[in-house]
Design goal:
The protein is mainly beta. It contains one helix and 17 strands. The N terminus is likely disordered.
Length: 271
Amino acid sequence: MANLLALASVALAGCISIPPFHGDGSGSGSLVPRLLATAYREGGTAGHGTPGMSYTGYSIATSGVHDGDLVLFVGSCDNGADNLWPLPGTGFTELAQHFFGTDTQTYFVAWKRADGEPDFYAGTYVQQGVSTSASAAIALIAIAGTDPTTPISASNVNDTVGVSSDPAVAHSDGVTTTVADSLVLFATGADWTVENGRNTYVPPSGYQPLASFGDRDSHWNWTDLEIAYRTQAAPGPSGALDATLVGTGDLNGMTEAGGAWGVALAIVPAR
């Protein structure tokens, strides 16, 4: 009898099919971005912010990054110059960097596959002294369960050079995903022309907010970052993406903002 039970157990085990892991580990099969840290600093040589942020450089903690994660480093700096942002460390690939706007901003997006990361990503702005403000905002994002060879299948970068409005509209033409359950992530920010005391952010319809902050933490004077995402069940175009950024109650009683930027990414799950 024992032998029969043993044989039955082996037969049943042979019938079990365990699918390969992908997604966030929740069993949903969907990629879920984790906001690991934010770093920010208000403008000027004596500006205040998170530890390690200065007029000439940046630092952001990497606690919570696991080997194999897709790591996204997103930054925005008031004023600046072309090629202001250096790569945060070895293995990073730059996806977007542009100096734009009437009052000027320099935004930056880079990615890598985590492998024995340091405690901090830190660097000195390449063109020191160019920025008269140097207020900055940085977000560090990690995503588990992405495709091991091509984690980002498409990107779209757009900014409204020379356009000033309030609300500022961050736009992207969107991306086309190639496989089911891809993650579409949309990072935005604005080139502000006045100091705003209270701020609001509305992501594209159907997108889940992940972060909204600026050079004064929960609000901003001169620079900011907003990030949202959604899972796209079927492969195909995401459609155009638009987010609105509103600044109100600035120090001079004005409510004017500058042009905005948007970077959309199609992130591929492991299969």
